[in-house]
Amino acid sequence: MNEQNYEGGVSPGDGQSRESSPNGDMERESFFEGKNMALFEEEMDSNPMVSSLLNKLANYTNLSQGVVEHEEAEDSRRREVKNPGMGTFIGVYLPCLQNILGVILFLRLTWIVGVAGVLESFLIVFMCCTCTMLTAISMSAIATNGVVPAGGSYYMISRALGPEFGGAVGLCFYLGTTFAGAMYILGTIEIFLTYISPGASIIHAQSPDGEAVALLHNMRVYGTCTLALMAMVVFVGVKYVNKLALVFLACVVLSILAIYAGVIKTAFDPPDIPVCLLGNRTLSRRNFDVCAKVLTTNNGTVTTALWGLFCNNSMPSAICDEYFAQNNLTEIQGIPGVASGVFLDNLWSVYTDKGVFVEKQGTPSVAVPEESRSSKLPYVLTDIMTYFTMLVGIYFPSVTGIMAGSNRSGDLRDAQKSIPTGTIMAIVTTSFIYLSCIMLFGACIEGVVLRDKFGEALQGNLVIGMLAWPSPWVIVIGSFFSTCGAGLQSLTGAPRLLQAIARDGIIPFLQVFGHGKANGEPTWALLLTALICEIGILIASLDSVAPILSMFFLMCYMFVNLACAVQTLLRTPNWRPRFRYYHWTLSFLGMSLCLALMFICSWYYALFAMLIAGCIYKYIEYRGAEKEWGDGIRGLSLNAARYALLRVEHGTPHTKNWRPQVLVMLNLDSEQCVKHPRLLSFTTQLKAGKGLTIVGSVLEGTYLDKHVEAQQAEENIRSLMGTEKTKGFCQLVVSSNLRDGMSHLIQSAGLGGMKHNTVLMAWPESWKEEDNPFSWKNFVDTVRDTTAAQQALLVAKNVDLFPQNQERFSDGHIDVWWIVHDGGLLMLLPFLLRQHKVWRKCRMRIFTVAQVDDNSIQMKKDLQTFLYHLRISAEVEVVEMVENDISAFTYEKTLVMEQRSQMLKQMQLSKTEREREAQLIHDRNTASHSVVATRTRAPSTPDKVQMTWTKEKLIAEKLKNKETNMSGFKDLFSLKPNQSNVRRMHTAVKLNGVVLNKSQDAQLVLLNMPGPPKNRQGDENYMEFLEVLTEGLNRVLLVRGSGREVITIYS
After folding, report:
1. CA spacing 20 to 30 A to 601: which of 422, 573, 833, 870?
2. Residue 818 region, left (φ>0) first, then alpha (ψ -120 to 50), else beta?
3. For the residues 880-902, what does the mean pLDDT come to?
4. How far apart are CA 409 and CA 149, in angstroms?
């Protein structure tokens, strides 16, 4: 490059130079003075200096968007009020601990131990804790692989697995967290109404049968009020929630310490908590105090309150319940203590149906036949049917608090450090507490008391409270505040999760929930969360809400594990977690365990949760904004595509697998818009989304000059592909000339085994125009290229008349003219077209041509048999073409064609001469049409050629025009028509007449396309032959096969 070029101009490939102005130059000089950066000054606009980049990265703020959005929003973010930055202990460990040690530990764990036995309970808790630990390991790896903005778990899944999976799982997790809030509130109200203040019920039961229903109604009323109060607290701000959470957590810790203290106390001083048994059945001690039928006093024998419950009056001679009369009353200790040996009795499970007596195993009892189980009798009955998988579903929500810290990652000081440490420590702590509690409950408490869900045998006291020391109220109050706190944590985390999803913009109708108060608090998201939470409260049964949560949480955990496994296996360059203690096998094990637990808990709930996630996935895929987050699923797709391409490349596809893999050649106008958009419509109808489609085009020029136009043209083509619903790839080539560009596309389009085998292009309508005399050369050479590459060729003539995708043909025919067999592509194309709605109602007709020596009847039978074996339904017709004389019209047509060809070769003639020559040919062509009327009446004999133009007439015509024409024309009319050309023209004229006769009204005509002549001198004649062959037809598809079979009769 010389110095003048360097100073004066910049080529497009040399980067963008700044505008030169005196001020600009001075500023630039002062900016780079002493910095030794003049060499890079032209790139500073697009590529910032490292120092400024590091300054920006150091001041990175937690956002729910990606890096690009961060740069755009940075200035506005600095003006916002900063959220409190919390550390590991307060920000992650305590919220996780509080959510995990929630309602299930205090209200259901003793019951689970009693029903499932110590061994199976241990198995349930161990499985669930293992699942959460493996998930936490995967989550830690993802969380430490870059900055985790607000919306923790959702952000991690969506950036690792893509917007579709992220949105689907994120919304499911949001629903799970919201319903968890409902579950905690229901637990709070259950503690309040059952154990703290039973008299606070607003709705009272009219009969003993209605007590359960009345309790549910009371829980709905109180739950709604509590939800409103909690929503108000959350609305005030996350800071106040955290302050309250510390108070609530202190209650939880005290409660757990009270449990351990109570267990230790039972070893040497078991509490006196008698349980009354009738035979082997446990009695509810709400309506009586003394566990005896009669009492002996000074005045004699007096019946007790228990007698009155089982007998029709209080007299000793009263009629009593038969089982009451036959069995004795005994009192046992409800909490005999660690040293009592009750542990062995509680090892095994006792699963029952609903409404069954809670019985002590091994106690003698006199059975009574056909006993009616009246609800008025003070028995303790089971309220639901129990089995192992159901208990897993009820228990699992108690370990689902592991995301409590990551959900509030936007409020953490250092999320990368805090999330792994806090979460894993919380899981270790709570797993130890749960597993030790199972062993201790089984060792301390009598089995019938464990199975008594609501503590009816203990006068309505909380079972775990009776074990605690110094007072049952420590546990009751502690559990009340713990469930309150967990509910507040859920109502804090869920709206932030929804806000993060909304701000990503992947689900259009959620956009409104991305807004909030000035300090970023998600107001609208909180409102929606409260409404969804109210649905859970209206269900009102803790045991019904718990399995629903299990599904949503398990699905979320499963995809966290999948994300980690995929990223690890793909070894993407960006996968560099700071947390080192992970492995893809652990993630895969965690994923498998989550899936197994989903179906163990409830297979129909699992399928329902998957259906919801699938619907959200498809919605985001079709309606959501397109996002490119460098996710693992995209990497997985690329790896799968690479593997498949390497497999495919090893051989040509079998005939059964052959389908047209189409390279569509588009022409562009001066505005870089597509000239024939109907060509893409036809491609869509032919392909129906199956197989490979490459849409190619060529721009003339050099890439450095034309790269902007090339990008614009590519955008236009992609836009049109979207409009026409053409699924495929766009490949645009800039070449010094169109001919070479088309050849390059035919040779190099595609990748490996995914290469095109068919080229589709439009017929060059302007090939006869004088200002474009060589357009036919490009076309004919392209035909030769496809033949050399052993590719099929489809040429659409009158392409602008082809139907759009919205059109529907209600009737009509697709006519196939099978002249020569070149692989069966002619048979396959109509079958593929009729799969599309446009052509579905068209009937297929196949015409073949019989020569004089052929047996047309036998040909028709053979063709019908062939089509039957091909499983293609079509009408068959054999057209007989009788050999007759080559008419004068054919000679005239050939002569005019050759004269025009000669004229095109004499490019050195002046414009005036060319016009005069063209006019002369036009006159001759007009004269030839007068012969058309007589050609049908001319007698024909097969042995002799009949001509109306005799040799003498031709010589006379030549001499007549010799004087008026210039010397350059003396050879133009002296030649006779070439006999080969005459024969070809005869075939074209005859075949055109036959096709017009049969298929003029067809919706589409498919014809064998004859190949170009081997001698390149006759290329322009070849175009004329094709023009004559298709003259008068509306829609024509010229088909030239690749030479290999593409259709088979075998299965």
Report:
1. 422
2. beta
3. 57
4. 6
- The model's pLDDT over 960-992, given as tens digits with 9 standing for 90+, comes to 544 444 444 444 444 455 556 667 777 777 788
Residue 457: closest CA among 288, 319, 588, 668: 288
Q: Would you kindly state where each structural domain of the chain is located, as residue ranges?
A: 64-269+383-601, 274-382, 602-650, 652-807, 812-927+978-1050
- Alpha-carbon torsion (63, 68, 73, 77), positive or negative: positive
The model's confidence at residue 435, banded by pLDDT at 50, 70 and 90, is very high
Determine if the peptide bond prior to 472 is cis (ω within 30°).
no
**DSSP assignments along 45-75, one per residue:** TTS--HHHHHHHHHT----SS-HHHHHHHHH
Look at strands 875-880 and 729-735 and give their pairing: unpaired
The dihedral built from the CA positions of residue 29, 34, 35 and 36, taken in this order, carries a sign that is: positive
Annotate 848-877 with b (16+ C-beta within 10 A) or e (fewer): bbbeeeeeeeebeeebeeebeebebebebe
Residues 1007, 1044 contacting (CB under 8 angstroms): no
Contact 345, 452 (CB under 8 A): no
Q: What is the mean pLDDT of residues 243-268?
A: 86
Chain centroid offset of residue 141 CA = 24
Please give the Cα distance from 461 to 40 (Å, whole number): 79
Average pLDDT along the chain: 77
Instruction: Fill in the amino acid letter for 607.
Output: L
Contacts of 536 (CB under 8 A, 6+ apart): 178, 179, 181, 182, 183, 186, 545
* Residue 664 tokens, joined: 């569509």
Instruction: Report domain 652-807's class.
Output: alpha beta
Structure tokens at 310: 């089982």
Q: How far from 869 is each of 608, 835, 863, 873, CA to CA, in Å?
A: 45, 19, 10, 10
Of 143, 120, 230, whose CA–CA distance to 185 is shortest?
A: 230
Is 774 a residue whose pLDDT tops 80?
no
CATH superfamily, domain 64-269+383-601, is Amino acid/polyamine transporter I (1.20.1740.10)
What percent of the chain has a predicted confidence (pLDDT) above 90?
Answer: 11
Predicted pLDDT of residue 533: 93
Give the DSSP H or E segment for 554: helix 542-570
Answer yes or no: is pLDDT of 117 > 90: yes
pLDDT at 427: 94
The predicted-structure confidence for 783-816, as pLDDT tens digits, reads as follows 888 888 888 888 888 888 888 888 888 888 888 8
The two tokens of residue 743 are: 């050849």
pLDDT over threshold 60, residue 907: no
Question: Which ranges in 348-471 belong to alpha helices (H)?
Answer: 388-395, 404-407, 415-444, 447-450, 463-467
pLDDT of 11 over the 50 cut: no
Q: Is the pLDDT of residue 164 over 50?
A: yes
Yes or no: say if 184 and 487 are a contact pair by the CB < 8 Å rule: yes
Contact (CB, 8 A) for 381 and 374: no
- Cβ proximity of 1009 and 801 under 8 Å: no
Distances in Å between the alpha carbon of 1026 and those of 790, 791, 1016, 1019?
Answer: 21, 20, 16, 11
Query: pLDDT exceeding 70 applies to what percent of the chain?
Result: 75
Q: What is the rounded CA–CA span in Å between residue 395 and residue 279?
A: 32
Torsion angle defined by CA atoms of residues 995, 996, 998 and 1004, in that order, rounded to the nearest 10 degrees = 80
Choose among 628, 660, 699: nearest CA to 833.
660
Read off the DSSP letter of residue 283: B
β strands within 906-1045, DSSP E: 1004-1008, 1036-1040
284 Cβ contact list (under 8 Å, min separation 6): 378, 379, 380, 456, 457
Secondary structure (3-state) at 406: helix
